[in-house]
Automatic annotation (TrEMBL):
GO terms for molecular function: fatty acid synthase activity. It comes from Kibdelosporangium aridum. One of its GO terms (biological process) is DIM/DIP cell wall layer assembly. Keywords: Acyltransferase, Phosphopantetheine, Phosphoprotein, Transferase. This is Acyltransferase.
Amino acid sequence: MSHTMSPALLLPGQGAQYQGMGTGLYRDLPEFAARVDEVFQAMGDAGDELRSDWLAADPRLPIDDVRRSQPLLFTIDYALGKLVLDWGLRPAAMLGHSIGEMAAATLAGVFDLPSAVRVVQHRIGQLATAPTGGMVAIAATQADVTPHLHPGVDIGAINAPRQTVIAGVEEPLRKTVEALREAGFTCAPVASRTPFHSAVLQPVVDAGRHLLASLPARAPEIPLVSGYTAASLTDVEAVDPLYWARHPVDPVLFWPALKALLAGGPYLLIECGPGQGLITLARRHPDARGSGCEFLSLTGSPAAGPDREAEHFTAAAERLALPLR
């Protein structure tokens, strides 16, 4: 590759989804379509239904429904990553956000694709029965937010020093947001109808643990930084069913994980999934600015629409000196 900086992949999760994401690439880039179809095939009948709803002008389920957002984010993150790896990209490390870590683990060989798909589908089945609620991003630190949390609401993610995401069931979440607004904090809903990364999802963890214990897992072949421990994923953690089963409940420590990743930099940080939300956060990290990191999105801005995706991806592949074929 012509660039000198080591690449590192950032794989987005819940909240990154938008209607039509990846559909332009699927239509215009057969190599991407082949890798997406590999995931849909592993999903069986559910994959056929997912594909037709994803490509439909008027989908049966909204994109923010957990039965759409989660499997499609996993599929697009994985397919983009698989494509650039197959074309010769050698990432120095990967960091996934929420479901993005599951895609990263699959790309790193912790799980084979059929096993990962089983975990994702099982989890979605469990999540679909979870109490409805949501997630809200607060322009405040974790310390600012914590005193205002009502029972049933938890810290769901730390995306930046003053971007803390809370998660919980509807009524306590509404009361918490009310209290935070009264305290003068800006609150913005995250696109999710499920209270991801809150304790209310503990039954999902318990159910997932048994399945994960039955599946083969290996040490990663590409270094992974854990969004849950904010440190390099150890070989012991990689094969621990409980580590993966706890993902729906444990908070995502994206900002501290980014700091851990950047200690090995500088990197060309590549958003390997829909949009450019993670590199937007990464640009603000002092360790990224200070070390002269560069940033690249593989799909471009959601505002550009599906018709521009292939053009954007082609330009990104050229910058990475990947052999487009």
